[in-house]
Design brief:
With 165 residues, this protein is α+β, with helices and mostly antiparallel strands. It has five helices and nine strands; from the N terminus they run αααββββββαβββα.
Length: 165
């Protein structure tokens, strides 16, 4: 009799498309549960900006209406991995919260991208089209971005400094 586990592994392999994430430098990010990706993104931003002496601090708790304070501005941070179509889906964007800027962090298999907008730019569609997360509600939205609409992570410190006003 065939080993059922080995049979299942064989069937899974035959029915699993090749992933651009396999053996990529940031492959482990795809293994993290969605609920933890936001925490990873926030901590990454804190450490990156701290490394270049830009003042940044995490919100005291999850109940606050923003994630980070960077140079005195309140930032909402959304983190997403690149999907199979090559896009980023930044979920649960809320316009009813008291933040100044939206920072979207996009993780590709071998690259980290970002973009940021003032809250009013997000509300007026200048960041892109917001789509409701669920039919009939108008609280949380999704923002879809192409990699070419994002910036390389190495310019984040200078962009944050330029937009500190």
């Amino acid at each position: 009799m065939i080993d059922p586990i080995l049979l299942m592994i064989e069937v899974i392999k035959e029915n699993t498309p090749n992933s651009k994430w396999v053996n990529a430098p940031l492959e482990s990010f795809r293994q993290v549960a969605n609920t933890n990706r936001g925490d990873i993104g926030e901590e990454f931003i804190v450490r990156l900006l701290t490394e270049v002496s830009i003042p940044v601090e995490k919100s005291a708790n999850r109940m606050q209406e923003w994630d980070l304070t960077i140079q005195g501005k309140r930032y909402e941070v959304k983190t997403a991995s690149e999907d199979t179509s090559g896009m980023f889906q930044f979920n649960h964007i809320r316009l009813d919260r008291k933040y100044d800027r939206l920072l979207c962090l996009g993780i590709r298999p071998d690259e980290i991208l970002f973009n940021l907008w003032r809250k009013w730019e997000v509300a007026e569609g200048k960041a892109g089209t917001l789509v409701r997360m669920a039919e009939g509600q108008s609280i949380t939205f999704k923002l879809t971005k192409k990699p070419q609409d994002m910036r390389p992570i190495n310019v984040l410190p200078s962009i944050v400094s330029e937009t500190a006003e």
